[in-house]
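Practice problem 4.
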């Protein structure tokens, strides 16, 4: 009789470990999927930037330093390997784009250019999608990190070496003042 009780407890324990492991793996997969969503949007935005720069160059070709900074910031964004690097590179790119849009203010004909307006609208749409994707990623990371720290799930996480992930956090200076992008004519 005691043997059956021990066997029953072991079976229940095994089922619980398997269910907990599966839950943690699903959270890891969701976090990776969310990160890939951000990565896709960042690449989409990065693909828009050369077209935007070329359009501005037609009107403000002498602003070479700005174009070089944008190219460097874009390359850093595409080369980032983790959320922390990505946030830093993203912030640098946002700052250089602010500078570009400040230059655009000096060129009324450029602000009225249909191609430029379409690119700006596309960039606005991508930025909105990025904000939503960052919130979703951080929510999934919160769920994953909480699950692997809560007892007794933390025992399963340690047993199978399941690690938490970093949140996507913008540097403090990026949070101090929201970017101001004006697409008015």
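Answer key:
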């Amino acid at each position: 009789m005691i043997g059956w009780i021990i066997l029953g407890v072991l079976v229940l324990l095994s089922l619980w470990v398997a269910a907990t492991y599966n839950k943690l793996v699903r959270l890891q997969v969701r976090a990776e999927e969310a990160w890939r969503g951000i990565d896709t949007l960042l690449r989409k935005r990065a693909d828009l930037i050369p077209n935007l720069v070329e359009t501005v160059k037609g009107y403000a070709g002498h602003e070479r330093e700005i174009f070089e900074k944008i190219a460097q910031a874009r390359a850093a964004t595409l080369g980032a390997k983790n959320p922390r690097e990505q946030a830093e590179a993203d912030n640098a790119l946002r700052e250089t784009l602010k500078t570009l849009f400040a230059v655009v203010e000096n060129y009324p004909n450029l602000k009225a250019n249909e191609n430029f307006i379409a690119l700006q609208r596309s960039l606005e749409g991508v930025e909105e999608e990025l904000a939503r994707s960052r919130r979703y990623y951080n929510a999934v990371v919160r769920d994953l990190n909480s699950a692997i720290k809560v007892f007794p799930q933390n025992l399963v996480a340690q047993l199978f070496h399941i690690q938490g992930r970093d949140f996507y956090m913008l540097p403090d200076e990026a949070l101090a003042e929201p970017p101001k992008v004006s697409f008015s004519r």
